[in-house]
Amino acid sequence: MPWIVHGGDLLYKDDRGWHLSPAVQGVTLDSREVRPGYIFVAVKGAHHDGHAYVGEAVRAGAVAVVGETPVAAPVPFIRVPSARRALAELAAAWWGHPARSLTVVGVTGTNGKTSVVYWLTQVLREAGIRTGMVSSVAVETGRRTLAARLTTPESPDLQRYLAEMRDSGLTHAVIEVSSHGIVQERIGEIGFHLAILTNVTREHLDFHLTMENYMLAKARLFERLVPEARGAVINADDASASVMRSHAAAGPVVGYGLDAGEVRARALRLEAWSSRFVVEGLGDRGLPARLPHPGRYNVYNALAVAAAAVRLGVEPRRAVETLARLGPVPGRMQIARSPDGVLVVVDYAHTPDGLGQALAAVRRFAPGDIWTVFGARGGRDRGKRPEMGRVAARWARHVLLTTDSPNDEDPAVIAAEIAAGIPGEVDSRFIADRAEAIRVAVEEARPGDIVLITGRGPERTQTFHGRAVPMVDADAVQAALARRGAALPAEPGREECRS
C-alpha cells in the first residue's frame, strides 16, 4: 500500500517511488533552509536529531514532515524506516531524477579521490565530452562553480547539482564519493556507469569502527553500477582489490597498478617535479606518458584516470597524451620557495599513508632537511594519531605539531597523542597557533630545506568548539615567506602557493 497524504494531492509513494505534487516547493533536511511548500525530512545525525526541529520547520512553512519517529505536528507526518533513504528518494523525485540523464562516474578511496576527479574531468573535457564535477574542493555544474562544503554533498544538494548539469546540456558527471556519503545514503537514487577505487588505508575508524567495515562501505559504491555500466576501475595493487571486484554489479572490471592489473605503468622514472612511464594495457603497444606532478601515488592516480577515460570512450593514445597537460589540484602539492632556496609545500595529506606518500615525494625536491607541520582533526579517529607521528619521524628531521580543526577537543591533547609516536631524537615541538607554526618552520629552515604543511590543503577555516575561524595555509606561507624575502615560483609551470 502506498503512503498517501491529503488524498494524494501532495505526495505519495508506490512501487515506482515517490510522487510529488506541483505544490511541493522543495525538499531539505535542514530546518533553516525550509521555505513555504517544502517537505522537511527529520534525520538523526551524530550531533543533532532533526525530529527536534520539526516545529521550527513547520513555522517556516513546511507542508509535510518525513521521519523515523512520529512527532506531533499540524502538518502530515510520514513515518519511514530510513529517513536518509527517504531524503535521497524525495530529493531525486523533486529534481526529476537527473542521474538518469547523465553518465555518472563515482570515485572512492582513502587518498587520491580529489585528484582523480579533477584530472578525469579534464581528460574528458579535452576529448570533447561535456562533463560536470562534484569534488571536495569545488562543484562545477556547467551553470556555476562553487566551493564544496562536504566531500559528497547531502542528497538534496547533490541532486540539485546533477539537475543543473543535465539542464546545462552536460552529458557526464564525475563525483567524489566518501564512505560517509555511501553509508548515509547521500548517493541514494544515483545509478553509476563507472566506479573507481584509488586505495583503502586507515581513516574514519571513529565512524566505521573497523577497517573491514570501512572497506565494505567503499565496496557499496560498486554495487550501485547500473546494468549498462562501463564497469569498474580498481587499484589492483591495493589489498582491497579482490573485495571491490566481488562487489562490482555490472560491466568489466579493469585493474591498474605498478605490480598488478590489466593497465600498468612500466619503465617508471620518478623525477623531482614529474614522472615518466609507459602505460601498458590500453592498446596493442605501450604508450609513453609524462605526468607533470611528483610522486608514485600520482602515477597511480594517473593510471586510474587513463583507464577510466578509455572505458568512457576516449581513444587510448589521446587519454595518455592528455596526462602531460593535467593541471594542479587545489591544495595538493602547492609549492612555493624563498629566494635563498627553502621549498614550502602545502598538501591535504591527513592519513598515515597520505602523509608518508607526500613526504616520500618531497624528499626528491631538495637536498636539505625536511620540516613537517601538521595536526589531526578533533573528534576523528584517534588511533591514527601516533601512526602519523611515526610516519613523520621516519622522514622529517623537524616535526612541528599544531592545530588542524580541533573541534571540541583540546589541541594540546591531540598533539600529545601524535607525539606518542615520535622518538625522542627527532626535533618535535607543539605550537598551537597554526600560522605561527608555519612561520617558525619557514623562518628556521635553511637553504635547501623543505617545509611540508599538511592536513588542510585549500580549506579556509579551522573549527574550535563549533566556531569557524579563518585560516588558509597558503596565506600563512606567503606571510612567512614575505618575512624571509619575496616568494618566487618553485619551478616553471608549477603553481605557487596562494589562496
Automatic annotation (TrEMBL):
Residues where UDP-N-acetyl-alpha-D-muramoyl-L-alanyl-D-glutamate binds: L29, S31, T151, T152, S178, Q184, R186
Species annotation: Candidatus Hydrogenisulfobacillus filiaventi
Cellular component terms per the entry's GO annotation: cytoplasm
Post-translational modification: Carboxylation is probably crucial for Mg(2+) binding and, consequently, for the gamma-phosphate positioning of ATP.
Domain Mur ligase central intervals: 107-309
Principal location: cytoplasm
Pathway the protein takes part in: Cell wall biogenesis; peptidoglycan biosynthesis
Subcellular location(s) of the protein: Cytoplasm
The protein's role, per its UniProt record: Catalyzes the addition of an amino acid to the nucleotide precursor UDP-N-acetylmuramoyl-L-alanyl-D-glutamate (UMAG) in the biosynthesis of bacterial cell-wall peptidoglycan.
Domain Mur ligase C-terminal intervals: 331-457
Annotated keywords: ATP-binding, Cell cycle, Cell division, Cell shape, Cell wall biogenesis/degradation, Cytoplasm, Ligase, Magnesium, Nucleotide-binding, Peptidoglycan synthesis
Protein name as catalogued: UDP-N-acetylmuramyl-tripeptide synthetase
Residues with PTM N6-carboxylysine: K218
